[in-house]
Amino acid sequence: MKSISLVIPAYNEEHRIGNTLKAYHSFLSKKYKDFEIIVVTDGITDGTEKITKDIAAKRGNIRLLKFKERLGKGGAVLKGFKAAKGEIIGFTDADSSVSPKEFNKLLIALPDYDCVAGSRYAKGAIQLEKQPPEVRAASRAFNLIVNLLFGLDMKDTQCGGKVFRKDILKKVVPKMITTDFSFDVELLWRVDKIGRVKEEPLIWEHEADNSKSALRNSPKMFLSLIKARLSG
User: Fold this and answer.
1) What is residue 101's predicted lDDT score, i.e. its pLDDT?
2) Which of 53, 92, 96, 209 has the fewest C-beta atoms under 10 angstroms from its C-beta?
3) What distance in Å separates the CA atoms of residue 75 and residue 78, rounded to the nearest whole number?
4) String of DSSP letters for the chain
5) Vertex 8, ends 7 and 10: CA angle to 5°?
6) Phi first, then psi: what are they for 47, rounded to 5°?
7) What are the φ and ψ backbone dihedral angles of 99, each rounded to 5 degrees?
8) What is the mean pLDDT of residues 25-30?
9) What is the pLDDT of residue 210?
10) pLDDT tens across 54-73, in order?
């Protein structure tokens, strides 16, 4: 396996980042010789950075990128991509909805593709805790609109687990304009135009906080998608 960089965006995640970092570091250190974990914080007001620093001091292979201003989830991930040293670069959410074992499925599948995206809805996926009905309905509607706008034949663009070849990211990241929660769509669309994308079914555990954030930001996300699509 080639060198791996894992980016974790962390905005005010002091209650979750510690367990997530420890779990991913323990798993990756057993499976891979050459890896790094990059935690990206932006405009935080809690103890996320201190927790990350404390764990990094004891375990190594963990880097912290700090930004005073809010970047948005997509903006934070893109900063991590640019700083990543690995030949394989991926990202996951700080809430561990995608466990290290499930994330590893994406790494295993990557050699035949340019991107492997985790999916909560592809055939074979399992949700350990079902999303509320309103969240499921909103998610389905979002994916329908996304596929119509961007021509992506995907069941789930928003699952918090994706991996990429570094060479494909070098081509698409400079073109990215979306920095909010909908950045996944633009990123997958740009990769799909020049490379091969696979959707991988995962075992996924619902995280209520993320669902609420997505619902609150839906209007802004749709506007961002329209701008991205018109940018070509």
Assistant:
1) 97
2) 209
3) 5
4) ---EEEEEE-SS-TTTHHHHHHHHHHHHHHH-SSEEEEEEEES--SSHHHHHHHHHHHH-SEEEEEESS--HHHHHHHHHHHH---SEEEEE-TT-SS-HHHHHHHHHHGGG-SEEEEESSSTT-EEEEPPPHHHHHHHHHHHHHHHHHH----S-S--SEEEEEHHHHHHHGGG----STTHHHHHHHHHHHHS-EEEEE-EEE--HHHHHHHHHTHHHHHHHHHHHHHH-
5) 145
6) -95, 20
7) -75, 160
8) 98
9) 55
10) 999 999 999 999 999 999 99
Query: Which neighbouring-strand residues pair with 163?
Result: 90, 116
Q: All domains of the chain, ordered by start, with CATH?
A: 1-96 (3.90.550.10)
Measured distance CA(186)–CA(110) in Å, rounded:
20
Task: Please name the amino acid found at residue 23.
Answer: A
pTM of this structure: 0.92
Looking at this protein, which amino acid is placed at residue 80?
G
Kindly indicate the confidence band of residue 215, based on its pLDDT and cuts at 50, 70 and 90. low
pLDDT digits (tens, 9 = 90+) for 152-163: 999 999 999 999
- Which of these ranges, 138-152, 165-179, 210-224, has the smallest mean pLDDT? 210-224
Contacts of 52 (CB under 8 A, 6+ apart): 10, 17, 21, 39, 41, 62, 64
